[in-house]
Design brief:
Length: about 400
């Protein structure tokens, strides 16, 4: 019987076993289940594959001629491998369970134990379960996605309402999952926030946004790029360290970087936020209060924080041209924000009437579907060329 073709984008499975016949059997069944498989008997080759191929699942035999499974588990822990690890070996169950506990204690994502000789039914069932788990939106899978380059950024343009010219872009992270397609941020951002992954994710977004912004090289046009911060970023370590990958790897102008933070997130610990956000402002980074009007924070506290910009929440903007109440709120927020010396950005602009009202009200900048939906980085120069001056009338 011929093996089934491996689907494009199938999850990667790496097998190391000193018995070639066993490795071949495991590989054949794994391909039928839907994995992209590499089988090796060489520990050195195994280590190289782990580093370069970045498998999602690893099947590990504990008994190897030139090494042993415990040493390989130590190597995987030192490499901070996030793959699911399945032990398949002929040692007795107490040894297998001890190795499994050791791997888990070292922070590895242990998937289970299967004792040789394995049956086709047991191996098939276990691989199907692991394949299902690999496709779940969980922390190990998200960490793998960051490493494997499955994340990418889209950019929503902002327009200066005084000149109707492009002024910047908001970077929006996306995940192109090989099996699930595009995963919306609301599905994976909470997963990152529940773990330390939010730090890695934010650093990746910052570095990628700054790199892509610098690559656009639009003559005679200064563009800002905005990146969203999580409340967990503010609660974590020194925020300035988040800029290290972007700020030290290449010469970038941090004055054209804006970090967006919701008012609720900023107010979770106002004193700590003031300390950390002020240090960012000292480095020339802009700070924006995102989704203003949806939280319950004190205006007194907000004005003490070192923000440079305020974004009016789209719930007020969408209907501002047809709702007198929302129009009044928009006018009031713009006036208050300017009196505090801050710039005002409106998000959620979906009609020409809303854009015209915001311009009359003195709003500084705007973004929304009427101006443009989020676009890929490669389309930014083309969009700018076609929208050097946005027609208001």
């Amino acid at each position: 019987m011929l093996d089934q073709a491996v689907p494009a984008g199938a999850s990667r499975l790496l097998v190391i076993d000193d018995e070639p016949a066993v490795g071949t059997l495991v590989g054949r069944i794994a391909r039928r289940v839907g994995f992209d498989v590499i089988v090796t008997t060489d520990p050195s080759d195994f280590k190289q594959r782990v580093r370069n191929w970045r498998p999602a699942v690893i099947i590990l035999d504990l008994g190897m001629p030139d090494t042993d499974g415990v040493e390989l588990l130590r190597f995987l822990a030192e490499e901070r491998v996030t793959a699911r690890i399945l032990i398949v070996s002929g040692f007795d169950e107490r040894i297998l369970e001890a190795a499994n506990r050791l791997g888990a204690a070292r922070g590895l994502n242990m998937a289970g134990i299967l004792r040789k000789p394995v049956t086709l039914e047991d191996l098939t069932a276990l691989l199907k379960n692991i394949g299902h788990d690999v496709n779940e939106i969980n922390a190990p899978r998200l960490a793998e996605a960051i490493d494997a380059g499955e994340l990418y950024l889209e950019y929503q343009p902002k327009v200066d309402l005084a000149t109707m010219t492009p002024s910047g872009f908001e970077a929006l992270v996306r995940w192109r999952h090989p099996e699930l397609g595009v995963v919306p941020p609301m599905k994976f951002i909470p997963v990152a926030e529940d773990t330390d992954l939010i730090r890695r994710l934010t650093q990746w977004v910052l570095a990628e946004a700054m790199r892509q912004r610098d690559s656009w090289s639009i003559p005679n046009l200064t563009l800002s790029v905005a990146v969203n911060l999580s409340a967990k970023n503010v609660d974590g370590d020194d925020l300035t360290e988040l800029l290290a990958p972007a700020g030290t790897a290449r010469a970038v102008d941090l004055r054209n970087l804006i970090l967006e933070l919701t008012e609720s997130a900023a107010m979770r610990n106002a004193e700590q936020a003031t300390d950390r956000l002020t240090r960012l402002r000292l480095r020339g980074v802009g700070l924006s209060i995102d989704d203003f009007g949806t939280g319950y924070s004190s205006l007194l506290q907000l004005q003490r924080l070192p923000f440079s910009e305020l974004k009016i929440d789209k719930s007020f903007v969408i209907d501002c041209a047809t709702s007198k109440e929302n129009a009044a709120i928009v006018y009031a927020i713009i006036d208050l924000t300017h009196r505090l010396g801050l710039k005002v950005v409106a998000e959620g602009v979906e009609t020409r009437d809303a854009l015209q009202l915001l311009a009359r009200a003195g709003c500084d900048a705007a973004q929304g579907y009427y101006i443009s939906r989020p676009i890929g980085a490669e389309k930014v120069p083309e969009w700018i060329a076609a929208n050097r001056i946005l027609e208001l009338a």
